[in-house]
Amino acid sequence: MCKRCRPRRREGWWAGGVLVLRKLAAPIPRFALTVPEAAASVGVGLDFFNENIRPELALIRRGSKRLVPVTELQRWVAENAERVP
Prior knowledge:
The chain is an alpha+beta fold. It has helices at about 35-40, 45-55, 70-80; strands at about 10-15, 20, 30-35, 60, 65-70. A three-stranded antiparallel beta sheet has the order 3-5-4. Strand 4 and strand 5 (about 65-70) form a beta hairpin. It is extended and about 70 Å long. It starts with 11 loop residues before the first strand and ends in a 5-residue tail after the last helix.
């Protein structure tokens, strides 16, 4: 089969929201999450996240895209954690 007729190989595939390249054994780490992913990672709904948590976070804004750095989420969780007696 010639090169034009042969189907192209994909560079990678998406698995659990992570791009997995064929040449790499480990998934690529995420440094930032979308707003719905950030809400899910904290364990709250999108409405609660937007009203109560998002105003306290520094976001990355590029056009209409909003990304939440993972370090910001970790900082927020550490600052808002309280000890239960």
